[in-house]
Amino acid sequence: MTKQITYLNESSNFIRGLLYATLRLQELKCIWLLECEDLHHKAYIGQSLGYEKELPLILNRRLSELFNVDQRILMPIGFEEQMSYLHKQFSLPDVCKLLQKSLASWTKKQLDKTEAVADEPSKLLLTSIHEILLSSYAKIGETTLTGIDLQLGQLTNIEFKSASPVVKLLAYPARSDKLTYKDGQDFDEQDSSDLKLVKFIHSIAVNIEICAMEVCAFNILTYKSMPLDFKADMAQQIWDEARHFILLADYLESHMGTVVGQYCYNFDVWNKHQLGDGLEEQLAIEQVIQEGDAVGNNMGLIFQLKQRGIHEKLQAILEYINADESMHTKNGNKWLNYICQRKGLNYMDILKTTSQKINKKLPGKFQLHESIYQFLEFPDEYITYTNQAFQNN
Fold it and tell me: Is 252 helix (H, G, I), strand (E, B) or coil?
């Protein structure tokens, strides 16, 4: 007997429901990341966000392929009611873990009944998503909740609500009481001792990488109307910064005789980001100016370490970090230019305004080759401005 082919509408509805659920999981993990006090666990949450960064994008693409002309992100009936109940009963980490586990289970069940030929692209897609969800679940840790399951059928309900829950954020990301706060840097910039390098690497790990993760989580939660590609880029940066923290924390312990938390932390990166008026200024401050400066600064530090013939492993770590930072700058420029075009704003005006707000020299102290500026998607007007600035100096 010929197997009954699953109706296209059922497949589409599941993918639409899964799209909404993955976006909500992303938001919940961003809140968890901001509220988590343990820096290492923040990084694990960041890694899991990175694993899932493209799920909404590829689900949305498959929806279009299934002839869905409605591009709205719609809420499955009953989904948020279940989420609301869970939030009242359990901690945010347990809610995230339960939703993660349920999504993997839902996907597997839908996968098993997805038609192998007529809907082969969906079957392959769901196979990949199932594996990603399981890998990500392993990264954040298993839930302690047992005997609790979200309603699987709700994802395929054909009636949807278009409302979206309001997210309330903390004024500052959480930190453990065991850590010590101090305004400004915990080292003297003029110091050339080995201890200064240790404190500097500690500061990069704790004050830059961790805060950069939190800034990107803030952007995902605050600017919901931005395209799915933007959320994917922010999740990618969160993943990158998480890996940077893990690499540097491990190096501090294995090669520098110290651990994360031995020296003070600050919120300099977070505070500067919050000075921005709207996403365009916040992108200019974090991704374009500060990450852009970091590209040149990292190249300078790597060069110094090579000249002295020390910390070869750290040099390799910094090279990977710098490659990631270049992409953060590139993405920052991409989205800043996107906003400028849509709002009729002037790119250079925004950079000059924001550099003054954070008391940062524009351009930074290192001049890069013009091909690097072009790779980083700096517009011609910025390259001209930079060339003139360095000529005048």
Answer: helix
Judgement on whether residues 331 and 210 belong to the same structural domain of the protein: yes
Distance CA 118, CA 170 (A): 47
Cα Rg for the chain, rounded, in angstroms? 23
Domain identity same for 248 and 344: yes
State which of 96, 128, 154 marks the end of a domain.
154
Distance (Å, whole) CA 258 – CA 99 = 37
Rounded to two decimals, what is the model's pTM?
0.94
In a domain, 307, yes or no: yes
pLDDT of residue 268: 97
Determine contact, residues 282/335, Cβ cutoff 8 Å.
Answer: no
User: Which residue among 90, 125, 154 closes a domain?
Assistant: 154
Write down the residue that tokens 């966000």 correspond to. 49
Same domain, 290 and 383: yes
Q: Is residue 279 assigned to a domain?
A: yes
Closest of 238, 258, 152, 136 to residue 197, by C-alpha: 258
Q: What is the largest CA-CA distance in the chain?
A: 82
Same-domain check for residues 255 and 369: yes
Conformation bin of residue 2: beta by default, left when phi > 0, alpha when psi is -120 to 50: beta
Is residue 150, in this structure, part of any structural domain at all?
yes
Query: Rounded to an integer, what distance in angstroms lies between the CA atom of residue 11 and that of residue 390?
Result: 58
Inter-axis angle of helices 92-113 and 120-140, nearest 10? 150
Residue 333: CB partners within 8 Å, gap ≥ 6?
287, 288, 376, 377, 378, 379
In the three-class reduction of DSSP (H, G, I as helix; E, B as strand; rest coil), residue 298 is classed as helix
Q: At what angle do helices 8-35 and 55-65 cross, to 10 degrees?
A: 160
Alpha carbon distances (Å) from 259 to 40, 233, 244, 298, 371:
11, 30, 15, 22, 39
Closest CA to 326 of 365, 364, 297: 297
- Which residues are CB-contacts of 65 (< 8 A; sequence separation ≥ 6)? 121
Judge if 144 and 24 occupy the same domain: yes
Segment 180-217, tens digit of pLDDT: 999 988 887 777 788 999 999 999 999 999 999 999 99
Residue 161 lies in a domain: no
- pLDDT tens for 26-58 read 999 999 999 999 999 999 999 999 999 999 999
Token pair belonging to 233: 């880029």
Structural domain of residue 305, as residue ranges? 194-392
How many separate domains does the chain show?
2
Residue 266's CATH number: 1.20.1260
